[in-house]
């Protein structure tokens, strides 16, 4: 039995709160305007990782005002963002839950990557959140409108804004998202401007910022763990560590939603098994030749779909071996 199960319930009350921070096995719950420390109840350690609390989860817990409270259960999630771990083992990394909008933040310098933004959009749509691309440091770009139009071609489900937090450019456009009860997740590379934007939206320096390196326009990790911050206006913002890469796995629905027009084109091909190569009557090839579909965007779709299938197969193989190992341990009474 886990030691946290020994917390007395005779004088402590049961509460409903929200996970605001996780560091290893320590949790913080946002409850009645404060962040209180908590641990997991022992039965959580028998669950798959997907069942463990993540930042943004609502949880029921036994409140212990003089120490660690005890998390008893995770409430049903409205949505759930996940990605393959960076070691590319096919194992999933569970990020945040119950997010209305996900701000995909990229700066208009060397950090800008059309392909990476497409990856973020697919992951966010797969998780059930609304992708909003924030192009920061627009004051350093001579033609930010060009990049706005380019990102808008990724998907008809993505919203795009070019801003400069330092010079107060474009920030008025973000007001529509700042309504009480709304949760916004910030994602992007280190040095893209997540912490600066968060400080601007909150009206105070709630997060440290770091300078970017001039020679490659990248920054150090200012945020080291996921953290939910509740603003005075009732908006909750989840800041996340910088990610240079984001992989695909279990993202078929998100990819299909991102590239729904290409899915429709594929259904119009003369042959149902068309590979969009040399086959006659290929609607995808015709769209590329006419300029209706850019070849760059189609190649991005193919790349993400292939990676997603590869990582899905890897995850299934790992899961199969993990189950076999567990059966062996159970059969031989191995701890």
What characteristics describe this protein?
335 residues, alpha/beta, OB fold (Dihydrolipoamide Acetyltransferase, E2P), Rossmann fold, Ribonucleotide Reductase Protein R1, domain 1, 3 domains, 6-stranded mixed β-sheet, 5-stranded mixed β-barrel, 23% strand, globular, disordered N terminus
Mean pLDDT: 83
Count up the domains.
3
How much helicity do the residues have? 25-40%
What is the CA-CA span between the terminal residues? 14 Å
Largest sheet: 6 strands, mixed
Q: What is the second-level CATH architecture of the largest domain?
A: 3-Layer(aba) Sandwich
In N-to-C order, the SSE pattern is EEEEEEEEHEHEEHEEHHHH
Spatially, the strands of the biggest sheet line up as: 10-9-8-11-13-12
CATH class of the largest domain: Alpha Beta
The total of beta strands comes to 13
Brief characterization of the structure:
The radius of gyration is 22 Å and the shape is globular. The chain folds into three domains: 3-74, OB fold (Dihydrolipoamide Acetyltransferase, E2P) (Beta Barrel), CATH 2.40.50.140; 80-239, Rossmann fold (3-Layer(aba) Sandwich); 252-331, Probable gtpase engc, domain 3 (Ribonucleotide Reductase Protein R1, domain 1, Orthogonal Bundle).
């Amino acid at each position: 039995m886990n030691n946290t199960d020994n917390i007395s319930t005779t004088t402590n009350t049961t509460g409903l709160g929200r996970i605001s921070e996780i560091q290893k096995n320590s949790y913080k719950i946002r409850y009645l305007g404060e962040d209180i420390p908590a641990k997991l109840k022992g039965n959580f350690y028998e669950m798959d990782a997907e069942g463990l609390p993540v930042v943004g989860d609502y949880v029921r817990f036994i409140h212990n005002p003089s120490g660690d409270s005890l998390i008893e259960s995770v409430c049903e999630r409205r949505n759930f963002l996940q990605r393959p771990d960076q070691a590319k083992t096919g194992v999933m990394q569970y990020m945040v839950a119950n997010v209305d909008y996900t701000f995909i933040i990229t700066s208009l310098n060397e950090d800008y990557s059309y392909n990476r933004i497409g990856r973020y959009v697919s992951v966010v749509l797969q998780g059930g959140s609304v992708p909003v691309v924030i192009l920061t440091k627009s004051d350093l770009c001579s033609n930010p409108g060009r990049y706005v139009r380019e990102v808008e071609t990724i998907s008809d489900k993505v919203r795009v804004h070019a801003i400069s937090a330092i010079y107060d450019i474009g920030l008025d456009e973000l007001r529509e998202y700042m309504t009480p009860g709304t949760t916004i997740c910030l994602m992007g590379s280190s040095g893209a401007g997540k912490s600066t934007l968060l400080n601007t939206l909150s009206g105070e320096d709630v997060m440290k910022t770091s300078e970017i390196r001039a020679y490659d326009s990248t920054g150090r990790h200012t945020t080291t763990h996921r953290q939910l911050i509740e603003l005075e206006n009732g908006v909750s913002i989840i800041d996340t560590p910088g990610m240079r890469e984001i992989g695909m796995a279990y993202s078929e629905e998100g990819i299909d939603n991102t590239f729904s027009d290409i899915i429709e084109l594929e259904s119009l091909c003369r042959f149902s098994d068309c590979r969009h190569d040399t086959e006659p009557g290929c609607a995808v090839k015709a769209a590329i030749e006419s300029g209706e579909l850019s070849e760059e965007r189609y190649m991005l779709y193919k790349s993400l779909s292939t990676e997603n299938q590869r990582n899905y197969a890897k995850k299934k193989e790992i899961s199969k071996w993990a189950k076999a190992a567990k059966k062996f341990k159970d059969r031989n009474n191995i701890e």
